[in-house]
Amino acid sequence: MKYIDNENFKGKKVLVRVDYNVPLNDLFEVTDVTRIERTKKTVSKIVNDGGIAILMSHLGRPKGEANEKFSLEHIIKRSSEVLGKNVIFLGDVLNDDVEKKVNALKPGDVGLLENLRFHKGEEKGDVEFAKAIARLGDVYVNDAFGTAHREHASTATIVKFFPSQSYAGYLLYEEVTNLEKVLSNAKSPFTAIIGGSKVSTKLNIILNLLDRVDSLIIAGGMSYTFLHSLGVKIGNSIFEPDMVDMAKEIVSKAHLKGVDLYFPIDNICADKFSEDANTYITTQNHIPDGWEGVDIGPRTIQKFARIIKDSETILWNGPVGVFEIDKFGFGTQSMALCVAVTTMSGAFSLIGGGDSIAAVSKYGLSNFISYISTGGGAMLEYLEGIELPGIKALNDVE
Ligand code: AMP
What we know:
six-stranded parallel β-sheet; binds adenosine monophosphate; 2 domains
C-alpha cells in the first residue's frame, strides 16, 4: 500500500475519497465535525505540496438518486471552517460542466464533488462510473477508512484507473497501522476486553482474537449468555438462547488455544433500566429472577484491573455495563481508568466502537489512550480478520 507521506503532489489533481457522512440536524447543519477534522492532515498535505484536492464522499442513503436532502453542498460551510480552506462545490460528477469547474481550480485549491451515492453505479462498484470519476484526476487517495469495508466505485474499483498512482491517506494509513499493532504485531501480554450487549454481533471478533490474545475478558450484556452456558443463574439479564452452544464452543476453544478467558465474578443487579432502579451487588454470580445484571461488581473490577495492569497491549471494544445510566457506569469507568493508567505506564491501547469511544470521552480519558479508532463498521470487520475491499484494492496495486 503506497502512502501519501512519501509523495509530492505539486501540480497534481488529487481525487481524495473521504468519509464525510456526517450527522446533520433539521436545518442541515453539521452537528459533529470529527470525520472532517480527521481528513485535515491529508487535505493540508496536498494543498501545501501545491496540488489540487478534489474531495468526494457519500452522505446518507439516497439509494442511487439525486436528493437535495443528502446534498454535500450542506457541508461546504463547515468543511471550509474545519479545513481552514475555502471549499469549492463542484456539483455532480456526471454534470456537463464538472470538468470545466475542475479545470478552473488552481494549485492549493480544495473542491468537493456532490454525493457519489446519487448514482447507482457507486454502490455497485460499477467500472464505468469509476472511470467517470477517474477522468477528473491524476492521482487517487483513499482517506475513507470508515467506508473501506465497502466495495464501491470510489473506494475500490477506481484504483484500476490509477495502477501506480493510488495512495493511502493519513487517516486510512494510521487506522490500519494501529489496528495491525494489535492484530499482527502485539506485544505480549495482550489483553482484549470485549463488552457490549450481544454475543452475536461480536462473535467473529472473539473467534479471530482467540488466535492472538493472551487474555480475553468478556463482560457487559453478552457475558450473561456465557455465564448461563456455564450453569450460572442470570435472572432477567440480556440473553441470546441461539448463542449458548457457540458460547460453550468459545470457552473450549479458548482452553485449547491456551487463552485465559475471564468473565464477571459478581454483578450489579437492577430491577429496571433506569436511574431510579433498585440495585444490589451479588455476592457470587447468581442473579435471581426479576433482576438483571447491568454492570460488573467490585470484585470483578478488582480482578479485571489486575489483568489489565499486567498487559503490554490492550484492545477494548464495548462497555462492560449500561454506562449510559450513571448508576450502572462504575464498571465501565473503572475499566477506562485502568486502561488509561496502564497506557501511561507504557502499554499500547486501542479503543474502538461508538459506545466505547463515548465511554472514554464521558470520563475525560480519551487523551490517555494510545489510539482511538473511529472506523465503526469497517473497524469491526477489520478486527474480524476480513481484508477490507478498499484496502485490498490499494494493496493489489504496487
Ligand atoms: P455494543 O454496541 O454491542 O458494543 O453494545 C453497547 C451497548 O451494550 C451499550 O448501549 C450498553 O448499554 C449495552 N450493555 C452493556 N452492558 C449491558 C448489560 N449488562 N445489559 C444490557 N445492555 C448492556
